Amino acid sequence: MAQKTPKIKHRAKVELIDSNGRILVDNLFNRGGIQESTNLHGWGAYLRVPVGKKIGRVQTFTVTVEYLGEKQYKQTYQQRVKALASSEKRREKFQKQREKEELERQEKELLQRRKRIMNQIELAFVKNGKEAVNFVTCDKCDANAKFLGLAFENPGSSVIVPEQITGAWCEEHDNKYARPFKTKTAIACERLEFFYDGLRQIDVKAGKP
Ligand SMILES: [Zn+2]
Question: Please, what is the end-to-end C-alpha distance for the chain in angstroms?
């Protein structure tokens, strides 16, 4: 990453003078009429102008702008370079930490979804149900799931293993741009059925694409 350098602030004095020669300064934006910015030359200074309440009455003001030069810092430039570098480093560290936490959260939620779906499949076996479509519910609502998200395809196998499952969603919550974490592909629940051959398994019905 390119080393960032501290920006130089420029200072300008802005005065608003009314027709009676009174200096009006808006302290909200212009502290004592003095403004500091890294981009005073590009964007200019801010100015707030009072507005009277008489319709049709025109007021005239005089605006004076004086460039005061660069802001003088208490720290030397080298100290500022050093301070900026260490704050960048801290920021990057926090950013990495946040990303790591986000991944952990996603991973945890994925495991919770998978566990829920496997529990629903367990229930299907208990109830002697065959159709996945009647037991697996959406990640986001109570509706029956229309699709099961899969983390990877399992070519040559007609069996879905639990490690493949990333989530499930109903028609309303079907958003191909926001599939559950790690979802690479999806399979319609109507293509799934359960069978037991010593192991409880989810089978993809042959025939349909
Ligand atoms: Zn839903």
Answer: 48
Cα 127 from Cα 150, distance rounded (Å):
25
Residue 178 alpha carbon to ligand 1 centre in Å: 13
Confidence check: pLDDT of 1 > 80: no
Distance 145 CA to ligand 1 centre (A): 7
CA distance 160 to 17: 78
Residue 191 has φ and ψ, to the nearest 5°, of -90, -5
pLDDT value, residue 27: 59
CA 172 to centroid of ligand 1, rounded, Å: 6
Biggest CA–CA distance in the chain, Å, is 98
Burial class (CB in 10 A: 0-12, 13-18, 19+), 189: buried
How many angstroms separate the alpha carbon of residue 135 from the centre of ligand 1? 14
* Rounded Cα gap, residues 31 and 25, in angstroms: 8
- State the distance from the centre of ligand 1 to the C-alpha of 194, rounded, in angstroms: 22
CB 38 within 8 A of CB 8: yes
Confidence band of 28 (pLDDT split at 50, 70, 90): low
pLDDT exceeds 60 at position 209? no
99-123 pLDDT, tens per residue? 999 999 999 999 999 999 999 988 8
